[in-house]
Every structure is written in structure tokens, then in C-alpha cells.
Amino acid sequence: MSLYNGFLIVASVTEEYVKAANYCGNTIRDNYPEAHITLFVPKTLRYMVDESAFDLIISDDVPNNTRTKLYALGKTPYTNLTVYVDADMECMHEDVSTIWEQIEEDQDLLITKIRPYNGKISKWKNGELTLHGGFFIYRNVPHVIDFMCKWYMDYIKQVSEPWPYDEYEYPRGLQQWDQFTLWKLLNIDKKPINIGIFKDDARWNFVHGYRKSETKNPIIFYHHTIPSKHHAVGVL
Amino acid sequence: MKRTIVNPHWTNNARTVLAAQFHYDDGRIVNAVISETETSNPDFAEILSKFTKEEIEKNTIRRIQKLNSEKLTADQKKQEEIERVRLEKLFAAKLEIFEVPGIKNSTDRNLKSQIRKSGSVIEAQAWASALLIKEFTASTAAAANTSTDTTASE
Fold it and tell me: Which CATH number does A3-115+130-140+193-223 carry?
């Protein structure tokens, strides 16, 4: 059976992420019972999964590291649209079912923006991280899937090789961020991906620490923070 | 040394104490509080000679508005921080509730959904208790039925 549109969640590294992913999947289901939800989880953590939260659970060959997410993006089971949702997000509103209408015909990827006041590193001499990699919707078309695969491969390279940049121009603190890889692909490699920003984007990805004034409408996804999230555990 | 007096305004309702900034030619800025004294304070007299009562009143109103706005922003920030902490505690509590075996293994999607949708820790705990009681009642009834069946077959 071919799967058309669906949600993709990834849980790896620690049990906390699987618990959060179970919760995340169930909250999507609570608000949108017809949603199709896929979980990518390494075999070693498979025993923790709440099967009722997901329609499809993929474990074969799934690596267990901090960016299993990037591995999964290029392997989406959905033939049309995939919504990537960080495991530590919580769906809070039934308007989640309108997600498929948010992306325009000519857009490859629809994403939310980082709020600089809420981030760790957002701006440096030669650039600025503006796109939030924790929640987005993308199309299953060859150039977008290639882009997702490249994001994964380049990230592996980024964290496993010596930092190739002048530290004054690109602070070494950027090395750990997959969002920097995304920035590089778009701004240095100039990959032709048509990116849009969600209308009322804070509603779709209301990150812990955002000001209440970021949206006047009910929050659809609240982005919590798992304490160990940004620690280098199980790196490649 | 030459100085410019900037933004003089009243600091009390009785309009007897002024505050202002003295900008000196060497770049120094001094925040001064000036009271009328029995022997007459020269700074106080200078301000009243250089600024009209209306100007000082206007500065005072602007100053009050600024302080009120700052207080409101600080209060809002404080409230937002309290709410953020509350939401994280609620999230952690819900994750913990779903670690309880009787809840984790329950197939009652409706009650589990009520726990997830709870707006407070108390509400989540109340729904969790309801689910546990339901599961306990069901398992007790099932055990009683099994016992009755066994007795009947004997």
C-alpha cells in the first residue's frame, strides 16, 4: 500500500526520546485521528515503543545517534507530503489536520523561523541561522529527497572531520548543529530548494521560551525541551 | 563647568522634589535629585527658571508612563516565565504518569487522551486515577469471573 501524506517522528539515543515520541505520536492522534504516523527508532530502543501511537514503525538499519532524524528524512515512506516533527513536541489543537493545506504548490519545504532571543547561536560574521529544523513539511520529489540525503551526509562530515572554517568567520560552536548544515546547503552550496515559512509559524512550532505574543491563535504544536537534548551523547 | 539640564520631572505627588540629568561639557552625565530647601536650592531655582511648569509636568507624565510600561513588561515577562515552568512541569508529570504500568498498558484510548489533554498536574492525576480504578475494577471482575467459572466446572 502506498502511503500518501503523513507525520514522521524519530526517537534515538536515550529512552527519554522514545517516551517523548510515544507522547508526541499520541497527541497527534488525539487531535487528528485519521493521521498516518511513522516512527523511526533503532532496534535497541524498539522495546520502549507504544505501538498504539504509530501506524508504521521502522527499525531495520536505523542508526542510533543524535541525528538519526537526518537519516530518516530521505527515507520517508510517504509519496507526497511528509511532516517532520521533533520527538519532544506536543500536538495541542485539532487544526493540525489543516497542515496539508499550508504548503503552496510551488514550495518544496515549509518551515518555521528561529526567534534569535530564544536560541543559543543564531548569528555570526558570515551568516545567520533563521530556519528551525525541528518542524517542517516537505515534498517527496527527487531533488528534495536528494537534498535530505545530502543534509545527512554533510552533517556526518561536519561533526566527524576537523572544523574546516576560520573560527573568526564561522565559530566552532556551529559544528554540532544540523541547522548549520542546512544553512550551508542553502547559502554556500546554493541548493535549489524552494522554501516557504508557515503563516503564523509560532502556532505550528511554539518553542519553549517563546513570548506569548508570538501568536494570537491557539498553539498547534508546543515544542518542549528534553534536558539532555543538546548534550553530545552517542555522537557519530 | 558648563552643563545642560535634561528632562526635569517631579518625583513626588506633592511636587516638591525634582529629578533631572545634568549633562556636562566633558561628557559626564549626572542623575540628580533636587529638593527645595529653606535656604533655597540653586539647582531647584535654576530648573524652575529655565523650564515652564507645563514642561516639567509633561516630563513627569512621560516618566510615569515609561515606569508603568517597564513595570508591565517586567510583570508580563515574570508571568510568562511562571507559565513556561508550569508547562514543563506538566509535561514531565504527564510523561511520568504514562510510565505507571497500569496506565502504560491500558488500551483505554479515551481516558489516556484525557490525561494528555489535561491543563494541570491535578487534572492529569485525577484522570490517571480514574483510569487506574477502571483498570483495577475490570481486572478484579475478570478474576472473579475466572474464579466462578472454575468453581462451576468443579
Answer: 3.90.550.10
